[in-house]
Design a protein that fits this description.
The chain has helices at residues 6-12, 17-37, 57-80, 96-108, 125-141, 152-157, 204-215; strands at 42-49, 83-88, 115-123, 169-172, 191-194. Helix 1 (6-12) crosses helix 2 (17-37). 44% of the residues lie in helices and 14% in strands. The chain is globular and about 55 Å long. The strands form two sheets. Strands 1-3-2 form a three-stranded parallel beta sheet, sandwiched between helices. The chain has a two-stranded parallel sheet with strand order 4-5. The protein is α/β, with parallel strands linked by helices. Bound molecules: farnesyl diphosphate. Farnesyl diphosphate binds next to helix 1, helix 2 and helix 3.
Length: 227
């Protein structure tokens, strides 16, 4: 899920953008708790992109502090619900306190198996592929592999989502028709579902609608349907 539209939601209410991000956290809480009750194995949410640093410093700080606040408030409940928090992105560039909290959350929940919650923080699809290329080149330089060993499986293993299946469904609230550098490699065959609903207004019913629509899609993965 690309959690988009917090700013617009706040502006519609003549409130500062922070107000929208706070409402975005509530939406996140609802959807995570709901997913944990469904046979959903993995939920990946886009919380902060490698491009979001371009926002005013105050908004960046707010978002980073909200991550801390979310973990402070929700960690015990997330843990009790069997949710494994798995941060993905260039984590060592995050502010110290944010990094400390997400590491703590990941450590505490590492053995949970009801739902994996991938939290994309300072995440960019191109940056992810770039770091994978660097690691693969390093392996070649060390003589551990040869260029002939490179295939799609090997590349996938060097992404943050190694050992995870590709997403079935990509949900984008607030009507924007773009991918915004999210999971570029992994979503090659994901089904897209876009709604005009802004993220703070996103409810379990919207997720159900997305899943129903998904169930009626004809997924051919580049092939043809013979049945
Ligand atoms: C997009 O709305 C939303 C973001 C850039 C931040 C999403 C983050 C959260 C919901 C909270 C932090 C996350 C965690 C995991 C605790 P926008 O600001 O781009 O909205 P706009 O397009 O309407 O301006």
């Amino acid at each position: 899920i690309i959690m988009d539209g917090n700013g617009r939601w706040a502006i519609q209410r003549n409130k500062p953008r922070l107000f929208g991000h706070r409402a975005g956290i509530k939406a996140l809480k609802r959807i995570v708790e709901f997913c944990a009750k469904l046979p959903v194995d993995i939920l990946t949410v886009f919380a902060f992109s490698t491009e979001n640093w371009k926002r005013p410093k105050e908004e960046v700080n707010t978002l980073m502090n909200l991550v801390v606040e979310y973990i402070e408030r929700e960690l015990d409940l997330l843990d009790r619900n069997g949710i494994k928090i798995n941060p993905i992105g260039i984590l060592d560039e995050l502010p110290e306190k944010t990094l400390e909290y997400i590491k703590k959350a990941a450590e505490k929940t590492k053995d949970n198996n009801k739902l994996v919650l991938n939290v994309a923080l300072n995440y960019g699809g191109r940056a992810e592929i770039t770091q994978a290329v660097k690691k693969i080149c390093q392996k070649i330089a060390n003589g551990e592999i040869t260029p002939q060993d490179i295939n799609e499986d090997l590349i996938s293993r060097f992404l943050y989502t190694s050992n995870m299946p590709d997403p079935d469904l990509l949900i984008r609230p607030s009507g924007e028709m773009r991918l915004s550098n999210f999971l570029l490699w992994q979503i090659a065959y994901s089904e897209l579902w876009v709604t005009n609903v802004l993220w703070p207004d996103f409810k379990p019913q919207h997720l159900i609608n997305a899943i129903y629509d998904f169930q009626n899609r004809d997924r051919r993965f580049g092939g043809i349907n013979l049945s």
